[in-house]
């Protein structure tokens, strides 16, 4: 990853206001912003070369994470209070963490699982089993295969059709390395939306324009506040800042230096600054060559973990009959009582329970006198801290 050192562009709020919200894509943007805190995973061939940008001529046989456990990654993210994860399936060197039909410079040519593994599959399955949303990083600057638009589309199609719903594609190297004249943004964005209409583009171009990104992306870069300090506290534009946990600014593992983490205070200060300005924090960790996140990084993450609530059920498209009982199941790492509400069209339709103890289960008896409702969701809120809440992902109907 790279940061422009002389950023002269400042966000013009009046410019962004003209891009109004409305429609399912904007709902997806709001849902993305509601997650607030995510984990970035930089893991690929650079992990084994001990540098931040691997060589495009590196031997795929080097890739062999003997203890790979994407479940460990997801458990750490969840326990740290994060709501989504972003993996690097293809970085600048062009090596792919999935078996791509369009290159043999991928895991199928590695020694890992005798070439039969699919790290992207293990990653997305681990995330979803723990209630975490999935994002995938993809470098436009492919030093192995070049910038052929059809090649890019073919690989994106693999990622967007073989691995279920993808919340976001995080692009890197557009504009600061590869011009839009060579790889047109609109063509790629339209292609993505034709496959998954609500998949958001997060373009790390450092130009900060809604014309070339659904979510405005910032990168800290050697932990420099100047790259985000211009964000106004009145910002309403969906934004995200990525920062790395490593004190030496490494994104990939680079020996034990990577375990020298920024302070907990730095993370807490940055997170509050960003959250107050409608900007998510995507915090990077670097698994070691064995495929595990080292304990030093885990400890630092847990020193700054966020409290969370996650609704487990009801979380599917169902019809509930009046007078029936509905099991509301949830989990949280908080203490204190919770409020459970029925939401209809984004507004509170009923308070199901004013104050229930945190026991991860509540049985709701639907009144026979309740009106017919469509587009319903459950919302659970901490009474101690109302900013901590969760809504069920899918809508249900009462009739």
Question: What can you tell me about this protein's structure?
Answer:
The protein is an alpha/beta fold. It has two domains: 13-302, Glycosidases (TIM Barrel); 309-398, Sandwich (Immunoglobulin-like), CATH 2.60.40. It is 22% helix and 25% strand. The protein has helices spanning 13-17, 24-35, 45-49, 70-79, 119-129, 149-161, 185-195, 264-275, 295-302; strands at 37-41, 84-90, 133-139, 168-172, 200-204, 215-219, 239-244, 279-285, 309-313, 319-320, 325-332, 338-344, 347-356, 361-365, 373-382, 389-391, 396-398. The strands form three sheets. Strands 1-2-3-4-5-6-7-8 form an eight-stranded parallel β-barrel, surrounded by four helices. Strand 15 (373-382) and strand 16 (389-391) form a beta hairpin. Helix 4 (70-79) packs parallel to helix 5 (119-129) and helix 6 runs parallel beside helix 7. The longest helix is centred in the middle third of the chain and has 13 residues, at 149-161. The chain starts with 12 loop residues before the first helix and ends with a strand. Residues 2-22 have low confidence and may be disordered.
Task: Provide the descriptors you would attach to this structure in a database record.
399 residues; 9 helices; alpha/beta; Immunoglobulin-like; 17 strands; 22% helix
Provide a brief overview of the structure:
The chain has 399 residues and is α/β, with parallel strands linked by helices. It is 22% helix and 25% strand. The protein has 2 domains: 290 residues, Alpha-Beta Barrel (TIM Barrel), CATH 3.20.20.80; 90 residues, Immunoglobulin-like (Sandwich), CATH 2.60.40.
């Amino acid at each position: 990853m790279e940061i422009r050192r002389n950023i002269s562009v400042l966000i013009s709020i009046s410019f962004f206001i003209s891009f109004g919200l409305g429609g399912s894509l904007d709902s997806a943007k709001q849902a993305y912003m509601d997650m607030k805190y995510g984990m970035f995973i930089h893991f690929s061939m650079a992990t084994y070369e001990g540098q931040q940008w691997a060589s495009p001529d590196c031997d795929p046989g080097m890739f062999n994470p003997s203890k790979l456990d994407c479940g460990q990654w997801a458990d750490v993210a969840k326990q740290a209070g994060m709501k989504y994860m972003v993996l690097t399936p293809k970085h600048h060197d062009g090596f792919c963490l999935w078996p791509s039909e369009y290159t043999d410079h991928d895991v199928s040519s590695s020694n890992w699982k005798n070439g039969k593994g699919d790290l992207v599959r293990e990653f997305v399955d681990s995330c979803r089993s723990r209630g975490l949303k999935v994002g995938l990083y993809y470098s436009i600057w492919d030093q192995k295969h070049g910038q052929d638009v059809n090649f890019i589309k073919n690989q994106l199609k693999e990622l967007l059709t073989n691995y279920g719903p993808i919340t976001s594609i995080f692009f890197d190297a557009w504009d600061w390395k590869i011009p839009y004249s060579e790889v047109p943004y609109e063509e790629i964005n339209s292609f993505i939306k034709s496959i998954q209409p609500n998949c958001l583009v997060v373009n790390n171009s450092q130009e900060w324009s809604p014309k070339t990104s659904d979510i405005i992306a910032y990168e800290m870069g050697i932990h420099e506040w100047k790259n985000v300090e211009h964000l106004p506290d009145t910002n309403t534009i969906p934004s995200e800042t990525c920062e790395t946990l490593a004190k030496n600014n490494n994104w990939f593992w680079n020996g034990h230096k990577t375990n020298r983490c920024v302070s907990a205070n730095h993370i807490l200060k940055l997170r509050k600054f960003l959250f107050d300005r409608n900007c998510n924090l995507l915090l990077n960790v670097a698994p070691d060559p064995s495929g595990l996140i080292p304990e030093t990084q885990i400890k630092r993450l847990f020193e700054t973990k966020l409290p969370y609530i996650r609704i487990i059920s009801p979380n599917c498209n169902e019809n509930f009959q009046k007078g029936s009982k509905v099991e509301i199941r949830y989990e949280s790492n908080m203490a204190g009582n919770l409020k459970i509400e029925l939401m209809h069209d984004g507004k509170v339709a009923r308070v199901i329970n004013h104050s229930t103890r945190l026991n991860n289960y509540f049985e709701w008896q639907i009144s026979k006198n309740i009106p017919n409702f469509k587009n319903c969701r459950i919302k659970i809120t901490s009474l101690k801290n109302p900013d901590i809440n969760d809504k069920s992902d899918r809508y249900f109907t009462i009739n």
